[in-house]
Amino acid sequence: MTIALREFDSFKRVTTWGEWLDVTKATFPEYLPNWAVSNLVGLLLLSMSFYIPSLSRKTWGFLMVLASAVNTYMMLTDPECYHEFGVLAVPPMQRFIYSRYYARPELIVLPIAFCQFLIGVELFFDEKSYRFRKIALGSAITFFIGLVFLGVGSAFPSSLLYAFTMVKFWPKHTKSKVH
């Protein structure tokens, strides 16, 4: 059985916290497999970042490029699907998703997909520029923290695991000028 989020009476309207909690409880059993995989992958990549950081970082680079491709494809084939996240998002995020600013989701999702691509490319290759690596990691951390507000739809708390992994990748050395 697949729960069609577009069928919920809360689709395209801001709910109360109580309504949001009821929808989250109703949909969680269906989201459990994806939720579990997302959180296990997050734990695995976070663990890898301590022992084999290069492989973990390159895996993240690949996943970010893949996410970019999936988001671009979904936006071009079914842009309405991004409104479905509003059903599971916390009420303040619902206000944004169902606002006139999100009336054309491609204006938001496609630039995000482009940034995911750039972040992925930067993470995949070995450090050439600390400045670009820091920009990419700071952007990824901000993005993953922002996903928290999508609730179960973002497999919370997996996005926090992802953000912690990005923090672990932060360059440790800085080039200092010796006078």
Task: Offer a quick outline of the entry.
The protein is mainly α. The protein has helices at residues 17-51, 53-77, 81-88, 91-97, 106-124, 130-147, 158-168.
Description:
This protein is mainly α and 179 residues long. It has 7 helices and no strands. The protein has helices at residues 17-51, 53-77, 81-88, 91-97, 106-124, 130-147, 158-168. The model has no long low-confidence stretch (mean pLDDT 87).
Comma- or semicolon-separated keywords:
globular, 179 residues, mainly alpha, 7 helices, single chain
Low-confidence stretches: none
* Overall spatial form: globular
Number of DSSP helices? Answer: 7
Order of helices and strands: HHHHHHH
First and last CA, distance: 68 Å
Summarize model confidence as the mean pLDDT: 87
Assess the beta-strand content as a share of residues. Answer: under 5%
Helical residue percent?
55-70%
Structural class: mainly alpha
Number of strands: 0
Profile the largest sheet.
none
Rg calc: 18 Å
